Protein 1
Amino acid sequence: QVQLVESGGGLVQAGGSLRLSCAASGRTLRLYDMGWFRQAPGKARQFVASITWSGGSTSYVDSVKGRFTISRDNAKNTMYLQMNSLNPEDTAVYYCAAAGRGRGRYDYWGQGTQVTVSS
């Protein structure tokens, strides 16, 4: 079983940048496709981005395309989300999640990290 811990959240002004990290332990990250999700107050959890186990394929929700970049370093057992041109609508708790290769179901979740973008 893999354990996930997010870090890198914080308060940033609109137009600013943050880089989130998701550190895995317990099992090698190579076994998993990975994703980032977010949940704003009063809203459902939303898919943000995903990356296959090798890093060869990525996917993004339309609202972050061109601004966010998902990446991973399997040697460091860590995944990242580089967020640029942030706006207040990006304010949310961001979660990383792991899915067994090709399974398409995220079975493992981190505890989340808060991102707040001020206008």
Protein 2
Amino acid sequence: QVQLVESGGGLVQAGGSLRLSCAASGRIFNIIVMGWYRQAPGKQRESVASVSSGGRESYANSVKGRFTISRDNAKNTVNLQMNSLKPEDTAVYYCNVKYWSDSKINEYWGQGTQVTVSS
């Protein structure tokens, strides 16, 4: 069973930056998309950014121009560079990988990493 391991979360002041990284413990085949989600207290989990196997990037409107997603296909890693952080970015951030297997879409989730932005 492949595990996704996230790192890079922490506490930062508003306007600061953090870089999240996610690495898979093993090789994942037939990846469709890799991305990051977040969940703030009392709110539903939401998609933050994703990058398809073809390199197409997608961002939530709330993070466009501030966050940048990148991936390394050979290493099965995906990163999220977060700049100009705001208190409303505070959440647990989860790495997600969707892949094709057994004629259906499957997915892995990381355990989550806390990002706290102070005002």
Protein 3
Amino acid sequence: QVQLQESGPGLVKPSQTLSLTCTVSGASITSNGYYWSWIRQPPGKGLEWMGAIGYSGSTYYRPSLKSRTSISRDTSKNQFTLQLSSVTPEDTAVYYCARGRVVYSTGYDYRGQGTQVTVSS
């Protein structure tokens, strides 16, 4: 069974960089045909796809977040990481990592339980 687990700080100060790691078990992040995404849900709003890293290592970003977002991976640890810079309170959300077949989509077949990140001084 595929499992994803997000980890990282729950509180980040404005203007700092948010960094989250997703640890994957039960599947390899280099498996052909899959994309490994970061998705978030701000309070009272819907899911928002942020970006993804593909099985080949290619990265894809939501245009509105591209200038602040970086996704990387460590294949030796089967992990991928999100960095979101210059955060503001509007970046407060539950952040999920997920596996899917389609990029630029909130669709997935497996997803982590999510981690709450609050941006506040």
Protein 4
Amino acid sequence: QVQLVESGGGLVQAGGSLRLSCAASGRASVSYAMGWFRQAPGKEREFVASISAGSRMTSYADSAKGRFTISRDNAKNTVYLQMNSLKPDDTAVYYCGGGYFPLPNNYWGQGTQVTVSS
């Protein structure tokens, strides 16, 4: 079992930046791929970005390419999502996921709210 705890969400103006963090714990958590997903009100949860266990591979949704960067620090069991040039359409609850690359959706955190004002 893997436990995931997100942090770093908040309110930001359009064009601003936020960095989300996800701390993982539990058995063999560093051996799993990690990722970020988001769910806006009235919409289904969607993939944002993922990173393989050894950080050799990353994958991004088209909406995230060029603006978001995923990274991980296995010494700290933490994965990050640096979000730049934020848009109101990025407003959502962001969830950390753990599992298998490129879609690590076997384990979930509780989510963190990101709100981008225009």
